[in-house]
Amino acid sequence: MYFDPYPKRLVPGMLGLLIALLGASACASGNAGPVQGPLPQIQVLIGEEKLNVELANTDLSRQIGLMNRKKLAENAGMLFVFKRAETQCMWMKNTLIDLDVAFADDQGKILNVEHMTAGTSDVHCAKGNARLALEMNRNWFSKRKIGAGQIIQVPESAMASQ
Which of 152, 119, 146 is CA-nearest to residue 133? Predict the structure, then answer.
């Protein structure tokens, strides 16, 4: 004889309870929004510095950026490749770590480096027409004396944005 331990009238209530528990668990985790899925890794050069960075070259990957990350390795970062060179701006909504961003033109020439504070809605913009933005841990650029005028060497294949 078959005994059904979950009568059909209880299933909708159990599903509702499960959904509520999953929602509460997501809120308790402190996750305030989307987290970037795996992105392609590329190597870029700035002078003698070799960096392995994540490539954000789609609308969605650029929108999510480094949101909700709790840490970023010392020589790791995210390179944003935009569709065209124009005044690009960044902000730190849902970003948990302080970052610096270097804006660069089509040739990779750094236009300016901006300090960005975690969780703020301050807008940080390029001082010119930028095609690239490289986000690194706070003070990464200043510790290495990297600034305006220096070149970020990016593989040609990475310059395609979608």
Answer: 152
Helix (H/G/I), strand (E/B), else coil: 23: helix
Flag whether 20 is in a domain: no
Instruction: Tell me what percent of the residues of the chain surpass a pLDDT of 90.
Output: 73
**Domain span including residue 86:** 41-159
CATH number at residue 133: 2.60.120.1140
pLDDT tens-digit map of 69-83: 999 999 899 999 999
Distance CA 97, CA 67 (A): 9
> Encoding tokens for residue 86?
């124009």
- Which region among 27-31, 36-40, 44-48 has the lowest average model confidence (pLDDT)? 27-31
What's the CA dihedral at 4, 10, 11, 12 to 10 degrees?
Answer: 170
Q: What is the pLDDT of residue 126?
A: 98
Q: 94 — phi, psi (to 5°)?
A: 60, 20
pLDDT of residue 58: 94
Length of the chain: 162
CB 97 within 8 A of CB 104: no
Q: Which residue has the tokens 């490749």?
A: 81
